[in-house]
Amino acid sequence: MESAAAARTFTPRTLVLTGMIAFAVGVRLLIHFVPGVLPWHFTPVEAIALFGGAYFSDRRTALIVPLAAMLVSDLIIGTYALMPVIYACIAASTVLGFGLRGRATALRVAGYGVAGSVLFFVVTNFAEWAVGGTEFCRAGLLPCYVAALPFFKTWLAGTLAWSALLFGGFALLGRSFPALAPQPARA
């Protein structure tokens, strides 16, 4: 027999949310393993974090699912030195997503997507500069940020596009399937 807590955890809503995130992670793997299918850095990573934060009723689950999805895909793609920094940014973006709970309008989602992307850009490129990762970063902090601007542009475009797909798709599904209706948030 399953416990009441397990029954609450595996609701149709949770399964659909997890499935949507799994799909987005699949896209991340596709971008990595099929060059040219989508621009490099046009990933759903930021959107996954915001979406998880906004829609998983349990905050721990909201943090764990996007981070676990990243870990699984990173184990397939390969690990890298800045993983702790990247994961901290994903966790921060998930926490940002908590601010969208019950308030996820298109404008708010876009604003939070921009905020999360800027946070990711500033923190990860500072970390890249701090470890002297590229010749641009070894030349100084400003050249490091300038060299990363094209990647930021693609990251931001990906965040906004994937956020529209995830948030918009879930809103459309929610209209047709009452079981996907928002649930009260739990700590």
Automatic annotation (TrEMBL):
UniProt KW keywords: Membrane, Transmembrane, Transmembrane helix
Domain of life: Bacteria
UniProt xrefs under Pfam families: DUF6580
TM region(s), chain numbering: 12-31, 85-102, 109-131, 151-173
InterPro entries per UniProt: DUF6580
Protein name: Rod shape-determining protein MreD
Species this chain originates from: Mizugakiibacter sediminis
